[in-house]
């Protein structure tokens, strides 16, 4: 079972999430929170597998709550899936930097949200390709300095790994990368794991940020 904590200040949205998740045989909603402080408190108390986090909440916003649960200084991070609206995507970028494992839009279909929770629970980052491309394109100045310098860490990658790394940064899923390179998804998964290990990155979110900061993609 995947234990889920639902955090949103709107009671109707929380109730909808709880209802949808409760219908899934592998999801167990272990708690709810209506503000950021409660989200942090309940997450630390319950230690869920995935926290579904809103951005705009009272007392403490979702970005800071995410940082306290999954930030770079957290020794035992909890996986956070941010769910927000498209016109707040600059907040989403900040949430990803704060340690979120991924994000979805609130107008996503229920099946997308459920699959997103499962993806994050497996330890993979959820980067919806279309949204990722738009996000990086519109807020690329926050990721990439005016004169991006190649990161020395990229030198440890093979030519094939750099190719896969570039496609990850462009927001392609494993299936799309497999199709582009004409290899199996299992092979892509192996490449992704190897790249993250070599570059000491936690997930694909950090990979996207590094690739753009280093100028590997534009």
How do the helices and strands line up, and which of them pair or pack?
Layout: E1 2-7, H1 11-22, E2 27-33, H2 36-46, E3 50-53, H3 62-70, E4 80-84, H4 89-97, E5 102-105, H5 110-121, E6 126-127, H6 129-138, H7 140-143, H8 159-169, H9 174-181, H10 185-198, H11 204-213
Parallel strand pairs: 1-2, 1-3, 3-4, 4-5, 5-6
Helix pairs in contact: 2-3, 3-4, 8-10, 8-11, 9-10
Domain Response regulatory: 3-121
GO molecular function, one term: DNA binding
Pfam families: GerE (PF00196), Response_reg (PF00072)
Description:
The protein is of the alpha/beta class and 218 residues long. The relative contact order is 0.11. Strands 2-1-3-4-5-6 form a six-stranded parallel sheet, with helices on both faces. 50% of the residues lie in helices and 13% in strands. Helix 2 packs parallel to helix 3. It has two domains: 2-127, Response regulator (Rossmann fold); 146-213, Arc Repressor Mutant, subunit A, CATH 1.10.10.
What is the arithmetic mean of pLDDT? 83
Q: Indicate the radius of gyration in whole angstroms.
A: 17 Å
What's the tally of helices?
11
Strand composition percent: 5-15%
- End-to-end distance: 40 Å
Question: How are the strands of the largest sheet arranged?
Answer: 2-1-3-4-5-6
Total E-strand runs? 6
Looking at CATH, which topology of the largest domain would you report? Rossmann fold
Question: Pairing-aware structural class of the strands and helices?
Answer: alpha/beta
Globally, the shape reads globular
Query: What count of structural domains?
Result: 2
Helix content: 40-55%
CATH architecture of the largest domain: 3-Layer(aba) Sandwich
Low-confidence stretches: 143-148
For the record, what CATH class of the largest domain applies?
Alpha Beta
The helix/strand series, from N terminus to C terminus, equals EHEHEHEHEHEHHHHHH
CATH superfamily name of the largest domain?
Response regulator
**Sheet having the most strands:** 6 strands, parallel
GO molecular function: DNA binding
Pfam family, one: GerE
Keywords: DNA-binding, Phosphoprotein, Transcription, Transcription regulation
Domain HTH luxR-type: 150-215
């Amino acid at each position: 079972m995947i234990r889920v904590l639902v955090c949103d200040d709107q009671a109707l949205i929380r109730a909808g999430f709880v209802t949808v998740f409760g219908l899934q045989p592998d999801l167990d909603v272990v708690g709810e929170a209506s503000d950021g402080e409660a989200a942090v408190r309940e997450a630390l108390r319950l230690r869920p597998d995935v926290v579904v986090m809103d951005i705009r909440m009272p007392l403490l916003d979702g970005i800071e709550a995410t940082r306290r649960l999954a930030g770079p200084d957290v020794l035992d991070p909890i996986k956070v899936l941010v769910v927000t609206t498209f016109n707040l995507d600059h907040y989403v970028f900040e949430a990803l930097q704060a340690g979120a494992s991924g994000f979805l839009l609130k107008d996503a279909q229920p099946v997308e949200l459920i699959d997103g929770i499962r993806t994050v629970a497996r330890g993979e980052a959820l980067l919806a390709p279309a949204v990722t491309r738009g996000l990086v394109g519109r807020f690329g100045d926050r990721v990439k300095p005016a004169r991006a310098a190649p990161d020395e860490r990229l030198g440890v990658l093979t030519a094939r790994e750099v190719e896969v790394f570039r496609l990850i940064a462009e927001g392609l899923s494993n299936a799309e990368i497999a199709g582009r390179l004409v290899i199996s998804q299992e092979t892509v998964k192996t490449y992704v794991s190897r790249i993250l290990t070599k570059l000491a990155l936690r997930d694909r979110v950090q990979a996207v940020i590094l690739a753009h900061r280093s100028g590997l993609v534009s």
